[in-house]
Specification:
Length: 343
């Protein structure tokens, strides 16, 4: 009999690859009747502000429920997962951590310390790609502790058929060819590079006159850079062809209107949104910084000329919203994953 699965993480909003994956994983486990409990480690008050009191309560509840069960951590905080894994071990729990993002070169001394603690007490590291597996090994994670399993899970019919806001529909109806891109949040990395490539999308829109861009980003972390991007759009005189949508939206609901999806990230672990677009029949162009879903059109990261050529090469595409996937394949993968750690 499979052990109870305790999923520790966060759900939308905000909408991002991590929260979407967690939401779909819970739905998948419910569908196949695997005993599971979700615990929110990013709780908010009615005002929308983070609740530290609720967080402490939920954190301790995670530890309690993990006793002789499986704790599956679904966030990107090494301090948090290290402490959770240590405490769970004290109550005979098994701990998995899905590594949605792994950039150890940016770790602070404190993060590096807790990463080293986590290495000892986490039972299984779920790497979304072979590249992440290799990187974990380079940082002394034991190879036998790592399972490669990409984080894409198929969207539900509710997600696919969610109503697109009127603001977006007006923009879509006034456009010839729609290119969609997304980001969890807008920010620059330690080298001042735009992680999600909004700058490249603006440049592409300016240099290809017959396309319009919808760039979905629910969180603006770097407001100074955001203002700079708005100024770029104004300077290029493409305000009527470039829309930055700063609200939560089901990305897959947009794909029925998209001609192309792009993900010009400077770093990535897999890119769930790329797999989503392909499953919906939308040509998907992405940087070559990691392994991508089968069928992805790759370009060299941060190479604007190659990025432009890939977009230009895409003709009008009418075979949209196929939603091609084998749900049974994903079900069996997660059953195998939890059965493996339960042994």
């Amino acid at each position: 009999m499979m052990k109870k699965v305790v999923i520790a993480g966060a759900l939308p909003p905000p909408i991002g690859g991590v929260t979407i994956h967690t939401k779909r994983l819970i739905s998948l486990l419910d569908e196949i009747e695997v005993d599971n409990t979700f615990i929110n480690l990013r709780p908010r008050k009615n005002s929308g502000r983070f609740s530290f009191k609720l967080y402490i309560r939920n954190f301790l509840y995670c530890v309690k429920l993990s006793r002789k069960n499986i704790l599956h951590y679904q966030l990107n905080n090494w301090i948090e997962v290290a402490i959770l894994s240590l405490l769970s071990k004290l109550v005979d729990g098994c701990v998995l951590s899905t590594i949605h993002s792994f950039r150890p070169e940016e770790f602070s001394l404190i993060q590096r310390l807790f990463f080293n603690i986590g290495k000892k007490f986490i039972d299984v590291f779920v790497a979304p790609s072979e590249m992440i597996r290799v990187k974990l090994i380079q940082y002394k994670v034991i190879d036998s502790k790592i399972i490669v399993l990409n984080t894409y899970l198929p969207p539900s019919e509710i997600e696919l058929n969610e109503k697109v806001p009127d603001e977006l529909m007006k923009f879509i109806n006034n456009s010839k060819k729609i290119v969609v891109a997304n980001a969890y949040k807008l920010y620059l990395d330690h080298s001042n590079t735009d992680i999600y490539g909004l700058d490249m999308c603006i440049e592409a829109c300016a240099r290809i006159p017959d396309i319009s861009f919808i760039f979905c980003v629910p969180i603006i972390e770097d407001k100074v850079y955001f203002e700079k991007c708005l100024e770029m759009i104004k300077t290029y005189n493409i305000e009527n062809r470039f829309l930055i949508y700063n609200k939560n939206i089901s990305l897959v609901s947009l794909f029925k209107y998209a001609d192309v999806f792009v993900r010009p990230t400077s770093t990535d672990s897999f890119g769930i949104s790329v797999a989503e677009a392909i499953s919906c029949g939308v040509p998907s162009i992405a940087s070559d910084v990691c392994e991508r879903a089968e069928g992805t059109i790759l370009f060299k990261a941060r190479n604007i000329d190659e990025f432009l050529e890939k977009i230009k090469s895409q003709k009008d595409y009418s075979n949209k919203n196929n939603n091609n996937y084998e749900k049974e394949k994903y079900i069996s993968k997660y059953i195998d994953l939890y059965n493996t750690i339960a042994k």
